[in-house]
Amino acid sequence: MNFDFARQQMIDQQLRASEVVDERVLEVISVLNREDFVPPEWRGLAYADAEIPLGHGRMLAPPRIQGRLLEALKPRADETVLEIGTGCGYLTACLGLLSRDVASVEGTPGLAEMARRNLAAAGIDNARVVVGDPYSMDFSRPFDVIAINGSLPVWDERFQALLTVGGRLFVVAGQPPVMRAQLVTRVSLSDWSRQSLFETCLAPLESARRPEAFTF
Question: What's the pTM?
Answer without folding.
Answer: 0.94
